[in-house]
Amino acid sequence: MRTIAMVNQKGGCGKTTTAINTAAAFATQGQRVLLVDLDPQAHATIGLGYDPDAFDRTVYDLLSGAENSLHAVVTHTQTEGLDLLPCNVLLASAELELGAVPGKELLLGRGLADARQDYDFCVIDCPPSLGILTLNALVASTDIIVPVQVHYYALEGLKRLLETIRVIRDRFHPYSMENISLLLTFVEERRTFSRQIQQQMREIFGDLVFDTVIHRDVRLPESPSAGESILTYAPRSRAAADYRALAREITDGEAKPDEQCAGSVIRRGIQKHLVNLFDGVWIPKGARTYRPGIIEST
Ligand SMILES: Nc1ncnc2c1ncn2[C@@H]1O[C@H](COP(=O)(O)OP(=O)(O)O)[C@@H](O)[C@H]1O
Ligand SMILES: [Mg+2]
After folding, report:
1. pLDDT of 289 strictly over 80
2. Looking at residue 285, what is its pLDDT?
3. Distance 72 CA to ligand 1 centre (A)
4. Is the shortest distance between the CB of 214 and ligand 1 below 6 Å?
5. Distance CA 209, CA 197 (A)
6. Does 291 map to a domain?
């Protein structure tokens, strides 16, 4: 089972959207998928059409040890092959309550142990913070996807995130968290700035950046109100094509764009270089095409 955490301490960058729609795209490929809602805001639970308060057992019970059986907490969704481990606002207290528990960063990994034989993919939607919940997701995951909005401020945040992941990795799991990928979101090919950020991100982070990008698409904010993934809500939309392409890039290891421009190479001029912003910042090993002397590789 591959366990993929959507991580970024910045809110609004597309973590939940990517968690729901990548999970749904895996399911439409015929994979068995578990989507874990680990954000007390319960956006993934709501986005799939559920009332968070209607569950008497949630991921919180699994973390706190009140429930040991994953199957007692999981719900089958309307999408064939896609199950949900829901949450509600009670999860917010986990940050405080679990703080003193020994091995507190391992609780989710333990809770998901039973999932290994039943699922091909586990996708975890993280809260917009780097607290105990995100730490649990990082430790439990084989892959980390960082959705990065193609905005300048988002890149500042990414710098902090990479530093934090390095610290967590040094402290807890020196050999894990290597498989980090960056997913560019809210991409607008017609905007010069969006193209420039995309190009520079590829120059700095190389293969760490998915070839597939997620374009800005107005259908995405609509789909949660229908309680559906974009794949059923608007299967022919740009965003549905992007998420299907992303799922294929993850499963096949290479990008096969669903339509014309996902992963297209951008050759327009650059006005301001982002390279200095990431000067000396730790970048995971996957980054192969960094510019020598500018980015330290470990
Ligand atoms: N590619 C996109 N195009 C347009 N809107 C998007 C896109 N990705 C996400 N959104 C919208 O932006 C908002 C924030 O996205 P969300 O996935 O909830 O971010 P996060 O979970 O990181 O806070 C939501 O309203 C979502 O529908
Ligand atoms: Mg979210």
Report:
1. no
2. 63
3. 30
4. yes
5. 12
6. no
E strand or H helix at 122: strand 121-125
Q: Is the pLDDT of residue 274 over 70?
A: no
Question: How many angstroms separate the CA atoms of 292 and 295, rounded?
Answer: 6
- Residue span of the structural domain in which 119 resides: 2-191+207-263
Residue 161: Cβ within 10 Å count: 22
Nearest to 130 by CA among 47, 38, 212, 17: 38
Q: Is 35 in the pocket of ligand 1 (CB under 6 A)?
A: no
Between the CA of 7 and the centroid of ligand 2 the distance, in Å, is 9
Q: Is the CB of 240 under 6 A from ligand 1?
A: no
Q: Kindly give the distance from the C-alpha atom of residue 174 to the centroid of ligand 2, in angstroms, as a whole number.
A: 27
Q: Has residue 261 got a pLDDT over 70?
A: no
Which residue among 220, 223, 243 has the greatest number of ligand 1 atoms within 8 angstroms of its CB, and so is best to mutate? 220
Residue 280 is assigned to a structural domain of this protein: no
Give the lowest-confidence range in 44-48, 60-64, 112-116, 204-208: 204-208
Does 220 map to a domain?
yes
Q: Which atom of ligand 1 is nearest to the CA of 220?
A: 27
Whether 104 shows a pLDDT value over 80: the answer reads yes
How many angstroms separate the alpha carbon of residue 146 from the centre of ligand 1?
13
Between helix 192-205 and helix 152-171 the angle, nearest 10°, is 20
CATH of the domain at 143: 3.40.50.300
Mean pLDDT, the chain, integer = 86
What is the torsion angle, in degrees rounded to the nearest 10, for the CA atoms of residue 201, residue 178, residue 230 and residue 15?
-80
Which pLDDT score, from 0 to 100, does residue 258 have? Answer: 57
> Is 298 within a domain?
no
Å from CA of 89 to ligand 2 middle:
13
| Total domains present in the chain | 1
User: Of the ranges 19-28, 175-184, 186-195, 217-226, which one carries the lowest mean pLDDT score?
Assistant: 175-184
